[in-house]
């Protein structure tokens, strides 16, 4: 380094290219050789639940203990499996009555697939939708 050069900030190479810090004369490795990112099933399940609940006409499920209803709602129930770069998901949601259940399920499936693929880069092979409850518009009892 000459007296005119100053040290590069962390994460930036001397040639101005952002990336890994490297020593003198060490080339920047291509992205495929830098490491690996693993996304757990649990993270994908949370993405699936959030995407399902953001669909118009859907919501979480009633909370209960031993069949006794509790105040409040819980998130959509999910079961997600990640095999390599392929995801299969099962989602249980409530649908607001009188929304057409088949149309809502189609929208949930499309929304889940789009959100998971956009955020994780994984391929969604299958999304099964279980309509576990119908919510009444007056806020009364739900039908399970």
TrEMBL record:
Q: Which Pfam families match?
A: Asp23 (PF03780)
Q: Where is this region: Disordered?
A: 1-40
Biased region (Basic and acidic residues) positions are 1-23
The record's section on InterPro entries has: Asp23 (IPR005531)
Tell me the superkingdom of the source: Bacteria
Per the similarity annotation, which family is this?
Belongs to the asp23 family.
Q: What is this protein called?
A: Asp23/Gls24 family envelope stress response protein
Naturally occurring in which organism (per UniProt): Actinomadura montaniterrae
Q: Which lineage ranks, top first, belong to the organism behind this chain?
A: Bacteria, Bacillati, Actinomycetota, Actinomycetes, Streptosporangiales
């Amino acid at each position: 380094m000459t007296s005119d050069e100053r040290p590069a900030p962390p994460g930036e190479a001397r040639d101005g290219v952002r990336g890994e810090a490297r020593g003198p004369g060490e080339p920047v490795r291509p992205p495929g050789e830098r490491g690996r990112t693993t996304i757990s099933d649990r993270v994908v399940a949370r993405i699936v639940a959030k995407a399902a609940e953001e669909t118009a006409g859907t919501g979480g499920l009633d909370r209960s203990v031993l069949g006794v209803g509790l105040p409040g709602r819980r998130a959509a129930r999910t079961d997600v499996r990640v095999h390599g770069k392929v995801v299969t998901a099962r989602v249980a949601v409530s649908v607001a009555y009188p929304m057409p259940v088949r149309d809502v399920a189609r929208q949930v499936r499309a929304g889940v697939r789009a959100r998971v693929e956009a955020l994780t880069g994984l391929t969604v092979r299958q999304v099964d939708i279980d309509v576990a409850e119908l919510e009444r518009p007056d806020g009364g009892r739900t039908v399970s």
